[in-house]
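G.,

No rush on this.
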Amino acid sequence: MPTKPIDAIDITLDPASSVPLNEQLYRAVRERIGKRLFAGDKLPASRDLARLLGVGRVTVTTAYGRLQAEGFLEAKPGVGTVVAERMSVNRAEDWSEPQAGEDAEAPKSAVRSPALGRSAAAAVEAARFHVQALEPLAVINPDFDSLPGRKWTQIVARVSKSPWQHNGYCLPGGFPAFRKTIADYVRQTRGILCEPEEVIITTGIQQGLALCGKVLFNEGDRVAVEDPGFEPHRNALRFLGLETVPTPLDENGLSVTALQETDGLRAALVTPSHQYPMGTLMPPERRRALLAWARKTGAWIIEDDYDSELRYGGAPYPALAAIDRTDGVPGRVVYLGSFTKMIYPGFNIGYLVAPSVEVALAFEGAKLLLDRHTSEVHQAILTEFIGGGHYDAHIRRLKRLYEKRRAAAVRAIGRFCSGFGRLIPSNQGTHLTFLFHDPKLSDVEVSERLRKEERIETRALSLCYQKAPAQNGLLLGFAGFTESEIETAVRKMAIAVEAMRRGR
């Protein structure tokens, strides 16, 4: 039976639903912002709301914490939890004309926005993704002091001296020399045997995903996504009119059994070489099973290989796209790569490897229609940097540095944090995933407290989930910080968590 409704905001939760209670509450409150809840409106205290709904307080604090992190709610000292001032009724949910049976007039406190398209809500949600500041333990930060050095500067200067050479209209598929460079690179490093004509240069991985959405699917198609997974990717697929189907993980990555038990899937989006956020490495047997599922069902696999270069011990497994091309069967894998983490985030160059020249041609046309082309100047710089062997040397330097910092983070976490959590084993990438022992300890609240009071940036693991019962924990970045900064930040984190555990 559903729980008792709340008079103030008329919320009803269903314990029998497959959707977790905290997710139900999150959605319910969000839907009412701009309709029945407006800027400055006070919500019930978490303890009161939990009592009235008949749920645990952690259910309410998790939902409230997520809404605060996304900018929908804010905690005001002496007042409580209120709708954020910047959350007017001009919400994406209200960007449409009144439907039959609705009031034709907006509330007196509201000014209705012009009608927008049905993808506006997904766009607004994406815009509220929290971009981390350059503070210790931020996940996305590279080491800016170790970015490409003298050789890179020389190449940039040389290319920039003759800008006319690369400042005309570039071919939408990319600068031909760069496409060949990428084809050679993925063959040598990821085992992918492809032609330059199958490579499409993109403005980062996100655009590669957008191209997949436009070329491979129709509106309403169902795409399996890892749960937990990378939230901006889910938002991108929804923005394109696709249905994201949360699919659970196990110790070997995305569950193929779950895929087999789900009807109507047109594709699966996966991070097999370093699952985000859990750090799982998909073994060869699981990769072959995933490919077998795709071939049997006619589904596509979109392989996001965002940081396979950063593996600290042992050679990486061949990419899914490499295995896909070994037996002459028409390929089902679209491979996405990027230089964002290896060069620097502002140099937003990525690439897509299509399974055939025919499919690549469709991607090339879609690229032309979306943004015409990616900067040829940047492509020319990377062509020379990679071709001269400088990129490989740069990666080796980064790996040595990041491995030391990873070890420092592991030591500090073991020293200060073992009493309330544990690390998920992982030997790759630029972040660690730390799980709380206590499921009632809100990772959203911990992350928010660390950001506001200690200037420490973390990501709450629970926010990476779409459906599955969320685990509480933190994503901790180590790449962009010294060993001393890492130890200090982890110690402060431990003190703050212990204080929260004691109710202080």
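When you get to it, here's the other one too:
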Amino acid sequence: MTETDVLVIGAGAAGLAAARAASSEVARVMLVDPEENGGILRRCIHDGFGLDRFGDDLTGPEYADRFSAEIAARPRIRRVYGTVTSLTRDRVAEVVSEAGAELVKAKAVVLASGSRERAFGALDIAGRRYAGIMTAGEAQKLVNIYGMGVGRRVVILGSGDVGLIMARRLTLEGAKVECVLEAAPYPGGLARNIVRCLSDFNIPLELSSTVVEVRGSSRLEEVVIARTDEHRRPVPGTERTVQCDALILSVGLLPVLSLVPYLETDKRTKRVVTDSCCGTSVQGIYVCGNASHIHDIADSASAEGELAGLHAARFALGKERRAVTVPVTAGSGIASVSPMKLVAGEPARLYRQKRGARSQRNGRAHAGRRRNARSRPAGRKGVVMKKFICVVCPRGCELTVDNDLYTPTVTGNACTRGRDYALSEYTNPVRVLTFNVRVAGGTRPVVSARAARPVRLMKVLPMARLARKLTVNAPVRAGQTLFASLLGERIIATASVAKAEKDE
């Protein structure tokens, strides 16, 4: 039996941070995951990572590489590419890898196993699961890792962040996204993604709408859409048909907790009950990241992972004692709160989800019309106004730029960053452009890339069309300049692809 001080299960944003934090306190840390460091971060070739942690706008692979470099430089961390098949209350885990099966006895365990998507079978939709019906994560892996197409005409069910991001991603790949449907009267994703994934490309967002039937032969051919009532149930007589060959599902994430069925869970949310130190009902077992609750951004998952790793290390050293806890209850207007217990004497970071309050504001802003449309109020000649949704932070302030007498003024912003964002969007809107480039002779068919600097919004689609025709030769390293000029912009790789070995 192998012994370790801290066992970290999962090498995503939370697991990497947990392993790094634990290795600063204890001598032996084992990090187990079947995939390479970063997990699903490797599929997330879009930007928006690292703003809080590194103060830099990174793509998913770049964010993962920053942590991976630190993990590789720490000899206290043993990296195992394998799967944990069981975990007892006494913290004995069975780990299966290419080297075989081994039992690992850990003094403390950090569970950072992430989440899984709701699949087609969990939905009340008539019809079979034809080819072309898949979750947003499956589509993301096919497009961003394997360089495959998922369809030419696409309908997306659910306005979660991954679904919104795939709406943009598929548009850049040349597909036509017919619409994004949301059964609730408000969108589920961040304002940032609604603006930059839907509004930028004029993709319709239909609130209070859902798919009630799928039709096809061997492959999906059409879907039947219906309006929903206040209880999110289809309204008879509102059905209409949309032709499509792909249906992407972004209808919620569920924490992966199959290893720990004995942990205390909340009866209403079905989540593991954790305290402000990421501790659970079983001493020595800590849960963090999306395994605890669904995080909007990877930075917050990493922050929680660091907290879990630190307290797991303290427990392994015998410095962590059972402390007094105070329960936290979701009050009026709050859907859920995490953590569910506060540890006396320990600082706490609370995550709460309002009952549609933020999302309703976003829904009014983006349902049916673009918010950056120009308007001329009556009685004020020469005045040009534009309205925007701020994407600097998740708050999503509604901003108004008033160009009265050719001097733009901004209202509605809660901070100076919001003002600067509105003025930039008013005068010269720019976007971080990310895409895939084909790789010849590599271990992967594509490599993720980005423009070295934000590009003007009007150049995004033309550059994406040109990028689909490009090919580079392996090997490719992250940070390498792939093309010196693509419509005047330098293109750099955001991931590495090794050269494939030739078969003898």
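The domain at 434-493 is CATH 3.10.530.10 (CPE0013-like fold). The mean pLDDT is 88.

Enjoy the weekend,
O.
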